[in-house]
Design a protein that fits this description.
- With about 375 residues, the chain is an alpha+beta fold.
- The protein folds into three domains: about 5-135, no CATH class; about 140-205; about 210-365, Heat Shock Protein 90, CATH 3.30.565.
- Helix content is about 60%, strand content about 10%.
- The protein is built from eight helices and six strands.
- Strands 4-5-3-2-1-6 form a six-stranded mixed beta sheet.
- The radius of gyration is 41 Å and the shape is rod-shaped.
- The model is unreliable at about 1-10 and about 345-365 (pLDDT under 50).
- It binds adenosine-5'-triphosphate (ATP) and magnesium ion.
């Protein structure tokens, strides 16, 4: 998540003179820094000049009794009483100018910071909206998958079953002395059977029935064995915590992420062992999927080339306020980590019974060595 500190909070206070007691005192009496500097710029040279004039006057006129126009009096008085204070005035004028410029710069900086803070607030709001939208899209997608799966099951399934029964009836009533017709009917029967099997696979793929009927752990176990056993990949599943309290959204997200991780292992890893750990502890639900395959071909900057698969995993986790990371596993292979915040649900989750009727700690095999 982006750093949400408002930038203007880090801006130093504009008026640093507040730390001088006299300045603070004057400020409290309505004389701001601009006026304070003005007073100093005019007051200091005047006071200096006055001191010099009074002193010179006292020394030359009153004590030495020299005429006003004598050289030493004029030279010293003009130098220390006029040129000197004027130089001080000029320096203070320059300081005032610099100060004013600094104040303008700071004001500009403050406005920029405020604009930045507003932009950041808008960005945060958009980020939140995006998360909510993503969440909505994912749940609509799951709902749609369920609907399509139901339609295929109820409509197409019924039709195929009817077709199959009719074919069987035909094969019974067609006379045995028509072998060609029987052969043709057998072929059609075979095709219908294969279509039914494929429809069933599509139904299960769209909405894993094990997830609905038995819960996350059995569904993941079935998925792992169904897809990896036939490839000779050794599978380990370790579960810790009461997954029954997991929300339906988290269970579906975890299942889909594990599914994609398995697909990646099959497609890219050439692994011999796969270990999956699911752990529900405190306010976190975490999943670890490790393989001992060839490992990700990391790009030069250390980032993984992201296809739709890893991106989808990350978006799913982010939609629930969690995270997915893909990292190298030592000595070889890949490790996918998922975590999502856990808020226990007291009632049956909305998207189905997604509950595991297994003991709290179920370990099948050993973790990946
Ligand atoms: N378990 C793994 N072992 C080795 N490489 C992996 C593994 N998982 C991912 N990768 C690498 O990471 C890349 C990105 O994976 P990702 O799932 O995002 O895309 P993909 O599998 O190539 O395509 P798709 O968008 O269809 O999923 C893969 O192309 C692959 O090179
Ligand atoms: Mg993939």
């Amino acid at each position: 998540m982006a750093d949400q500190t408002a930038p203007h909070e880090t801006l130093p206070p504009l008026d640093k003179t507040q730390r001088f007691p006299l300045s603070r005192w004057l400020h409290r009496r309505g004389i701001d820094l601009e006026r304070q500097l003005f007073l100093v710029q005019w007051g200091l040279p005047l006071v200096l000049s006055a001191i010099v004039f009074i002193d010179e006057f006292r020394e030359h006129i009153l004590i030495k009794r020299e005429p006003l126009t004598t050289g030493p009096f004029m030279a010293e008085t003009l130098f220390f009483g006029v040129v000197g204070p004027f130089a001080v005035w000029l320096v203070l004028m320059w300081i005032r100018g610099e100060w004013r410029q600094r104040e303008r710069d700071q004001e500009q900086l403050r406005r920029t910071y405020e604009e930045l803070a507003r932009a950041q607030e808008r960005l945060n709001a958009l980020h939140q909206q995006r998360g909510e939208l993503l969440n909505r899209i994912l749940s609509v997608q799951e709902e749609e998958r369920r609907r399509v799966s139901r339609e295929i099951h109820d409509e197409l399934g019924q039709l195929l079953t009817g077709l199959s029964l009719n074919l069987r009836h035909c094969r019974e009533v067609v006379p045995q002395d028509l072998p060609e017709v029987h052969e043709q009917l057998a072929r059609i029967s075979d095709l219908v059977q294969r279509t039914m099997e494929q429809a069933h696979e599509i139904i299960v793929d769209l909405r894993p029935t094990a997830l609905d009927d038995y819960g996350l752990e059995p569904a993941v176990r079935e998925e792992l064995h169904k897809r990896l056993d036939s490839l000779g990949i050794d599978v380990t599943l370790q579960v810790e915590g009461d997954l029954e309290t997991l929300s339906a959204d988290s269970a579906v997200a975890a299942f889909r992420i594990i599914q994609e991780a398995i697909t990646n292992i099959i497609r890219h890893a050439h692994a011999r062992h796969v270990a999956v750990q699911m752990k529900l502890a405190g306010d976190r639900f975490s999943v670890l999927i490790e393989d001992d395959g060839v490992g990700v071909n990391w790009a030069r900057n250390g980032a993984v080339h992201q296809g739709v698969g890893i991106l989808g995993m990350k978006e799913r986790a982010a939609a629930l306020g969690g995270e997915v990371t893909v990292e190298a596993r030592q000595p070889r292979g890949t490790r996918v980590r998922l975590w999502v915040p856990h808020h226990p649900v007291s009632e049956t989750p909305a998207s189905g019974p997604v509950r595991a009727n297994e003991p709290n700690l179920a370990v099948e095999g050993e973790p990946l060595a």
